[in-house]
Design the sequence.
């Protein structure tokens, strides 16, 4: 995405922008908020400085998937222990399977780019 004042790019939900007037480059992560992009903290900027754009985005996305898998695991435990809803349990297991497939694909990409 480009305009006269800035240029931006999105890869796996992570957005990078360059302001032409100030020369400032900012990186935003959508996982910090549900409605808008939030700028990365300095720790994550360090990841981009050391790993580069593509590898850092892959690593951030893998971390996001790990946290989703942890939340799903906790939800499955609640459903199994309370025997609340078989439909919800199936949904959680299917979602876990989808995220595991995405996680595997990104892990392969990350390891083949070494």
Sequence:
């Amino acid at each position: 995405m480009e305009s006269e004042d800035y240029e931006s790019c999105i890869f796996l939900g992570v957005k990078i922008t360059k302001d032409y007037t100030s020369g400032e480059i900012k990186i935003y992560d959508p996982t910090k908020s549900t409605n808008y992009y939030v700028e990365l903290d300095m720790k994550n900027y360090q990841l981009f400085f050391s790993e580069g754009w593509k590898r850092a985005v892959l690593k951030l996305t893998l971390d996001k998937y790990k946290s989703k898998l942890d939340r799903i695991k906790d939800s499955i435990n609640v459903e199994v222990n309370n025997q609340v809803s078989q439909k919800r349990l199936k949904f959680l297991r299917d979602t876990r399977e989808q995220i595991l497939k995405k996680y595997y694909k990104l892990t392969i990409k990350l390891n083949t780019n070494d």
